[in-house]
Design a protein that fits this description.
Blueprint: H1 21-35, H2 44-53, E1 99-100, H3 101-118, H4 124-144, E2 151-156, H5 159-163, E3 178-182, H6 188-204, H7 210-229, H8 238-244, H9 255-269, H10 272-281, H11 300-314, H12 320-331, E4 343-344, E5 350-351, H13 358-377, E6 382-384, E7 387-389, H14 391-405, H15 430-433, H16 446-453, H17 484-487, H18 491-506
Antiparallel strand pairs: 1-2, 2-3, 4-5, 6-7
Helix pairs in contact: 2-4, 2-18, 3-4, 3-6, 3-18, 4-6, 6-7, 6-9, 7-9, 9-10, 9-11, 11-12, 11-13, 13-14, 13-18
EC number: 3.2.1.4
Protein name: Endoglucanase
GO molecular function, one term: cellulase activity
Amino acid sequence: MSKSKISPSPCLIRKNRKMKPTIIILTVFIFLLVLLPTAIPHDYSDALRKSILFFEGQRSGRLPKQQRMKWRGNSALNDGKNLKTDLVGGYYDAGDNVKFHFPMAFTATMLAWSSIDFGSYMSQNDFGHSIVTLKWATDYLLKTVSQLPNRIFVQVGEAQADHNCWERPEDMDTPRTAFALDAPDPASDLAGEIAAALAAASIAFKRSNPKYSKILLDKAINTFQYADLHRGSYTDNPKVNRAVCPFYCSVNGYKDELLWAAAWLRRATGNDYYLKYLVNNRQAFGAAFSYYEFGWDNKVGGVNVLVAKEVFEKNVTALREYKETAEKMMCSYFPETVGPHMTYTPGGLLYKPGSSQLQNTAALSFLLLTYADYLSKSSQQLHCGNLNFKPDSLRRIVKRQVDYVLGDNPMKLSYMVGYSDKYPRQIHHRGASILSVNVHPQAFGCLKGWEIFASPNPDPNILVGAVVGGPDVDDKFIGKRNNASDTEPTTYINAPFVGLFAYFKSNPNFS
């Protein structure tokens, strides 16, 4: 971890009685501009609505009558046919037309967590749409584990063939091969993440749809059993390795997903079996290490924060080490603390090396805001050696990230499509870049699509609410379709932002 690179605080202005009023006013104005980089007001309600709407543009399968993203149409209606099963539905993960179940499950987990912890900040209408968005994912995930304990479905679509073509999902002609693993093939990471998603969703649906909630929880328990019984990484298996890698290889291994699933099952059931599992496997499964990471591949940071909630609320001493590790992560956001630190760009964006930068910003900010909520509800502060931080200190960092994404950044650009007047107009997304089937019913074809890809014209379809990959370490952004790292949206970038926008929608004047 490198030391924080956040912009330094301005020098203190010395008192000078001889300064003219105009100079004083100008000096104070400049001081405030530097000190308060997030002073521009934002419409968080609008951002929340659009962050949820985005998922309708990522839907696969037969679209419902209530579909609001009207330029999309039905797609991939025969998915699963080669394995004689129904795998229609779910979400395309990004700007392509493949359904990768591992990141889709993480997306569902984060949508559920957003609803559970931040749903109370949403309007009834927004919450309703968020639950519909979650159910579109969980309905599909139930299909992926419908044949357990014998088989788990990994992916639909051949990534290499799909990436060789630039065509709309509505008329794609690339192979829709479904891939699966059969017992006793290991799939702990995939099954663990699906179990976490279903368990988290069971909490989200508990009041509004108790019958569905029970179905989700029962399947989560069974899926975790498969994950724990057949230990190993799913991408190590040659049956699916070429299909999944290098796109969504489980680089971090499978042990963090086992803890992640156990943590969500503990929260969903209260069963002491999962508490013992978390206690007994914490050290061996690495929850004490790599705790600065959180995303679709590495769940360690999320595990520690999620489990810490039980220590805050119930003072479960057996889990105290999880809270202590979570606290170390929280302290790393503050450059004045001792020890390793999170890295910031000169413009103040939380940054980790890799592509699609905002996936890290979104996930890490979510943990920070969640932990701040735990601190507030228990009337505690964050202790970092000799320094103490109130919950609002954590929230200010999160607000800086949210406002940066919405336009308070060196590029003066909203990284959410359709928010404000200035946002990326050429995103790395097949559906957005090609004329809708409603306008041009005939298929363009694979090669013709590449002509559209190379076009300098803006996208004909606005993928409203999509948060793109974002800027580089120097806050620079190349907003071109061929720069996928900067301009490709993903479901797992948007999912944490649903919770973040919900909080600031109810606290718009927080500073």
